[in-house]
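Quarterly update, task 2.4: adenosine-5'-triphosphate-bound model.
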Amino acid sequence: MRVWRVIEPYIGFLLQGFALTIFACLLAIIGAVILGGIVASMRASQRSALRWVAHAYSDIFRNVPFLVQLFFLFYGLPELGIYIGAFETGVIALSLAGGAFVSDVILSGIRSIDRGVIEAARVSGLNDVKVFLRIVLPIALRVSVRPVGSVLINLVLTSSILSTITVNELTGVAKIVAAETFKPFEVYAVLLVLYASFTTALSLAIVAWHRRLNRFMTGA
Amino acid sequence: MRFADFTPFDLVLLAQGLGVSLALFLTTTVAGLLLGLGFAVVHHFRFPFVNPLIVAVTEALKNSPVLVQLFLVFFGIPALMQIRMTPASAAFITLSLNTAAFAFVIIRAGIESIDRDQIDAAEAFGLRRIQILRRVIGPQALAFSIGPIVGILVNQLQVTSLISVIGVFDLTKIGNILNLRTLEPFIVWAVIGSIYYVCAKILAHSGARLERRIRRSYAWGEV
Amino acid sequence: MIRIKDLVKTFDDSTVLDGVTLDVNAGEIVTVLGASGSGKSTLIRCINGLERPSGGTITVDGNDVTTKAGLAASRRISATVFQLFNLYPHMTALGNITLAPVEVLGKSKAEAEEQARALLAKVGLAGHADKYPQQLSGGQRQRVGICRALAMQPRYILLDEVTSALDPETTGEVLDILQKLATEATTMVFVTHEVAFARSISTRIVFMEAGKLLVDMPTEEFFAENGGLAVPRIRQFLSQIRKD
Ligand SMILES: Nc1ncnc2c1ncn2[C@@H]1O[C@H](COP(=O)(O)OP(=O)(O)OP(=O)(O)O)[C@@H](O)[C@H]1O
Ligand SMILES: [Mg+2]
C-alpha cells in the first residue's frame, strides 16, 4: 500500500511524537482538573472577591484563542525571567486553558448537588472544609466525569497546536516527516485518522468509566 | 525612540488583521452553516450509502485537530492533485468544512428532536415531505439549534487564529509580526487577546439575543 | 437539655417563628404537631443550626448554637433524621453511617464499622451494608438515615417528618424502629403528622400555629377532652387529620 510505504520508515519517530502528545495531555489534564477544582470551589465560595477573580479567569481563558494564550506564555515568560522549555510552556498553557473549562464543569456539578445532602453532612458535625472535601467535591467530580472527558478530548486536539512553539509532539513530528518524504497528503491523512481514532477510543472509555462510577448514583 | 517601538501604523495593521479574521469567520460561517444544513437535509431523507459517509466525514472532522486539517488541505491536497492552493483558500475550505461538521450534528439533533407524531400528522394532511421539512420541522429545529450553534460559532471564531500558522495575515499573524518587531510580548498578546475576547463577547451576546427573539416568535406563533 | 427561649425567625419580611419558648429535658420525647407552614421544620432547623435565629436563644446542654464553637459542640451530641433521607449518594450504607463517627468523633475506622454493622443489623439491614442508597428502597434508606444518626450516639435526636415520604407499609417499618428507640431513653424532638403514633410514644406534645406554640402539654392531657381537645383549633386539626 502506498500510504504504508511512505509512513513505514517513520513509524518509530511518529510513535515518539504520539507518546509525547499523550504525556503532555496527561500532565495537562491533571493540572486542569486540579486547577478547575480549585477555581470551581472559588466560584462557589461565599467571598465575592474570590468569586470574581475565579470567574474572570475562566471567562478570559475560554474566550481568547489558545494560540494567543500559548504565544503570550511562550514569548512572555522569558521576559519575566522565567526560562522553561517549550514542552513545559505548552503543558502549562494547556492546563490553564483546560482548567477554565473544567472549572465550569465542576461548578455546575457542585450546583447540581442536592442541598439536603450537604445539610445532612453539616448537621452531623463535619466542618465546612470536610463537607467540601468528603461530600461536595466527590459528588461533583462523579457527575463531571463525562463533561471533563469532553474537555480532555478537546485538550488532545488542542495539543497539536503545541507544534507551533517547536514541541515535537505528534503533529510536530508529522510536519518533519511530511517535509522529508514530500508526501504531505499521506502523512497528514494518516495523522488525521490517528487523532480521530484516539479521541474516539478515549470518548468510549470515558463513557464506560462514567457509567461505572455513577452506576449507583443515577437520579440521586 | 527605538526603531522597534509601536507606531500609529500598527493600528492599521491590527485593523487589517482583524478584518481578515472576521471576513474569514463570516464567510466560513455562512458556507459552513449552509453545508451543514445540506448534510442534515440529505441525512433526513436517508439516501442509501450517503448517510454513513456524511457521518464518517463529520465525525473525522470533529475528532481531529483543525491544525492537522489545515495542513492536509494546504500542503497535502496540492501535492496530491498537483494544483495550487493559496493559504486563504485552504483556510476557507478547512474552516467551512469544520463549521459544517458541527452544524450538521446540531441540526440533525434538532430535526430528530421533533415529535414523530407531528410529522405523521402532517403526512396525514397530505403535505409532501419537503413541505413538512420546511413548514413543520424547519422552524422548530431552528429554535432548538440556535443556542448550540451560537456556542460553536464562538468557538470557531477562536479557531480562525490557526490560519496564521499557514501564513494567512489574520489578527494572530499580525500579533506575530508585532511581537517579533517590538519584542513586547506582554503588550502585543494582551492586545490581540483582548480584541478576540471582545469579539467573542459581542458574538455570544448577539447570539443570545437572536435566540430569545426566535424562541419568542415561535412561542407566540404557537398560541 | 435543649432550651429554646423567645426564638424568632424571619425570612425577609415574613415572621415564621414568633417567640417560641420550649425546654426539652433528657429522656423526653416531644412531638411537634401543627398545620403545614406553621414553622415546625424551621424550629428543627434552628435547633440543628441549619437556620440562624433572628432573635432569642437556643442552647443544647448549655452550648449556644448561634456561636461557632457552641454549634460544633451541640452537633456532637445531637443528630437529625430528615424527611427525604439525604443520604450521601456516593457512599455505601456503611460509608454513610461511619463518616461522622470517624471524622467528627475521631473513632477508628474499624470501630466505626463494627458499630455501624451492629446498628444495621438492629434495623434489619444486616445484608445491606455495602449497598448504595440508590439500591435501597425508601424505607431501607430511611432506616440507614436513622442508623447514621444513631452512630453519633447522640443525646438528642431531631426527626422531621421522617415517614412522610414513605408509603403506608414502609412507614410501619420505620415507626417500629422509632418505637424501639423511644424505649431506650433517647431524647427526641419529633415532628410528625402521624398523630396516633405520636400519642403512643411521646411524653409531651406541643402544637404550633403560625410560628407560636399554642399549647405544650403532657401527651395524656393533650388528648383529654378537658385538656388539648378543649382548644377549638386543636380539635379542628385532629379531626382533619383523622379524615385524611
Ligand atoms: N428559606 C426560606 N425562605 C423563605 N421562607 C421560608 C424558608 N423556609 C421556610 N419558609 C417559610 O416558613 C414557613 C414555615 O415553614 P416550615 O417549613 O417551617 O413549615 P412546616 O410547619 O414544617 O410545614 P410542613 O408541615 O409543610 O413541613 C412557611 O411559610 C415557609 O414558606
Ligand atoms: Mg416541614
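Highlight for this quarter: The CA atoms of residues 127 and 175 of chain B lie 55 Å apart.
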